[in-house]
Amino acid sequence: MTVSDPASLLAEGGAFADLSFWRKVAVSGADGGPWLQDLVSADIDDLVPGQARRSLLLSPTGRIRAEFTIARTQAGWLLLQDLAQPRAIDHLLSLYVLSSDVALEDRTDDLALFAVPGRTEPLGAVPAQVSSPSCLGGGRGIDVTGSAGDHQALSTALEHLFARAGNEAVEDWRVRAGIPRFGVDATEEDLPQEAGLDELVAFDKGCYLGQEAVARVRNLGHPRRLVLGLEASGPVTPGDEVRSGGQEVGTVTSAVPTGDGTALLARIRWQAREGPLETASGVALVRAQASSPV
User: Fold this and answer.
1) CATH superfamily entry for domain 224-289
2) Which numeric CATH code is attached to 6-177?
3) Which residues, 6 or more positions from 252, have their beta carbon under 8 angstroms from its beta carbon?
4) Each residue of 54-101: pLDDT tens digit?
5) What dihedral do alpha carbons 120, 7, 250, 182 form, nearest 10°?
6) Helix (H, G, I), strand (E, B), or coil: what is residue 4?
7) Kind of pairing between the strands at 15-18 and 163-165
8) Strand 261-269 relative to strand 225-232, pairing
């Protein structure tokens, strides 16, 4: 298949990406599920094999330590983590194993991982483990996991169904969709609400690390800053200063060119969230029309 716009094909479910370089950590043991449930921000109690949920690991003060996807498998749980993040999820979680019947195993080199982020229908006859929604975000899509030894066979099977999209196309798709990336648009100094990742928090579930801090912001105040999806009619690059009324109020964190301008994400002070916003060079920034993968 000829790929004229790989990012659009990813959004439409017509392309796949090879994420085999991502970190993959298997969680096993009799206490695996309850142990994860007590630590992570997402509610995973209802997951069955083939289902997945994006989540956060927070510090006791509610700051983000890691963002990852928890996929339920027949054998246990598989954690999928973008390598752009500063700390490995297995190293972070290992501090909490203590006397629990839990084992963490780094399977990064053992497993192949592919994502079809825009897919909504079942994948069909691909001989591998499938989970949804995709670890790339957007609330939809499918991930395919198999043995590293079957990497080429799985890649070929997917190429019969979809176009192949490279890492640059994945980044274009993500930024156009307004999906924040931890390690790029958000940092370890951020609360979930400040990172645009509060949808990964189950505010109504039982206790977990950092629960009181994120609940306090939600119920009693507001975050210090936000990650906003914005559009510009001119060129914008990551690192550009964002201004409002002549004052610096934020920084562009991700930016990709579009047909008539730039799609971008920026960290903006709470007080300046309503704008008007512009770059230091005078390029006007407006809220993106839709923060959606489609």
Assistant:
1) Aminomethyltransferase beta-barrel domains (2.40.30.110)
2) 3.30.1360.120
3) 236, 237, 238, 239, 240, 241, 242, 264, 265, 266, 279
4) 999 999 999 999 999 999 999 899 999 999 998 999 999 999 999 999
5) 60
6) coil
7) parallel
8) antiparallel
Q: Find out whether 133 and 52 touch, Cβ atoms under 8 Å.
A: yes
Q: Write the DSSP assignment of 184-242 as a string of letters.
A: TTB-TT--HHHHT-GGG--TTSS--TTHHHHHHHHHH---SEEEEEEEESS---TT-EE
Q: How far is 28 from 233, CA to CA, in rounded Å? A: 50
* Planar angle of CA 273, 232, 18, nearest 5 degrees: 95
Model-level pTM greater than 0.90? yes
Q: Any idea where the domains of the chain sit in the sequence?
A: 6-177, 224-289
Strand partners, 241: 251
Q: Which residue in 103, 98, 82 sits closest to 28, CA to CA?
A: 103
Cβ–Cβ < 8 Å for 104, 92: no
